[in-house]
Amino acid sequence: MRKDDLLARLPPEPPESDLRARIRQATLTSGRKVVVLDDDPTGTQTVHSLPVLTEWTPEALAAAWDEADTTFYVLTNSRRYPLAQARAKNQEIARHLAAVARERGAEPVVVSRSDSTLRGHYPGEVTALRQTLEAELCFGYDGLVIVPFFLEGGRLTAGDVHWVQEGEFLTPAAQTEFARDPTFGYRHSNLRAWVAEKTGGQVPASAVLSVGLADIRQGGPDAVADLLARTRGGRAIVVNAVTYRDVEVFVWGLMQAEGQGQRFLFRTAASFVKVRGGIPDRGLLAFEELSPAGGEVGVGGLTIVGSYVGRTTAQLGQALALAGTLGLELPVAQVLSEGSRRETIDRALRQVEAGLRQGWDVILYTSRELVVPVGMSQLAAAQRVSLALVAVLRGLSVRPAYLIGKGGITSSDLATDGLAVRQAQVLGQIVPGVPVWRLGGESKYPGLPYVVFPGNVGGPDALAQAIRILRREEG
Description:
By secondary structure, the chain is α/β, with parallel strands linked by helices. The chain folds into 2 domains: 3-276, Rossmann fold (3-Layer(aba) Sandwich); 287-470, Four-carbon acid sugar kinase, nucleotide binding domain (Molybdenum Cofactor Biosythetic Enzyme, Chain A, 3-Layer(aba) Sandwich), CATH 3.40.980.20. Helices cover 39% and strands 19% of the residues. Helix 13 (341-357) packs across helix 14 and helix 14 (378-395) packs across helix 15 (408-418). The model has no long low-confidence stretch (mean pLDDT 94).
């Protein structure tokens, strides 16, 4: 349906208020920190001026806790791994985080950040996180709050149905290409039914609490607090939201419920984090905020594209049409064949390096056909392709003017394995929903602006627009 038709059916939006600032101040006063376990690096797409870790030793977590005003991210990249490994990562982080929290005498606000189009290891990794935190901190969670709302990417929830926006139209999430993901696919757009589906019926739809837009917009924070005060036993709670003000009202009511002794764990998309951390709005980044020091004169920038979704392919086409770009295709079939893998990677490395030194803005992209050899899972095939892209980046002897990683798994692997990033600073967004990190001193390219570009965000020209900004052609 048309977005305007849906919005016209809803109760009036809450009036403007200072709730975001009040949420921030209350969080600062409490001494609690919002700790976001991000299953790929794109979850920083709504925030700015905070640290993101790719390691989770107790020492690293303690340093980030002390550095952050209200919020910091821990990149698990767990969507890349099978469930058993995803669970193990969450358990390990939870143990180390609990130790840091005990030392500081404050409970963490723990958010499991995942995909706004409902892909990821739910409920498995959240269950592992909950069980470990409850055992380590000696309390029980009353509710698991699910908020896939992500305004910047056009993901709205109304009437318990999760919608994906394309232009002026909204499509139920289960009718999009994202729901057909071979690893994380689903059949239901109604979030209560989605919970039942994903839990294999262990949590029936009737047992899921819905916080509706009438509760938020007509009842306000007090009505939200009353609803949440009655939850027990880790009950699943789905939250409807179509604007940031909806989330602000919900969060302020939730904090009232927490003040009465309730405890909650969170499974959300990126917009919730911005509100719960009380992070103020800021404009998009300009070239002056992105320009790094230490680059070689005349060297081009590098974009590496691994995502296969249709939106990425459309964006890739427009980026390749830009003057001054050099497109280099990495044939997936050759990368997955043991007989040709090494030669294919070495050839791509030589071509990328030569293009950069000649001043081209190089775009290295995987061939668009999805090739999965017999006997190999799609997840394993995607990992092998991603590692090939990592090998190219790791082998470069030239520092590009900028770096864009396109796709969640791709951008994460490039950061951790290709660039050896252990900590970075989130600067903000270059286009809506697309974050930029400033790489730490330990990385392959200290100080380089690294654009972490989700596969499923932005219009057809978004990737080309980001490249133009990094060239100082606009913005």
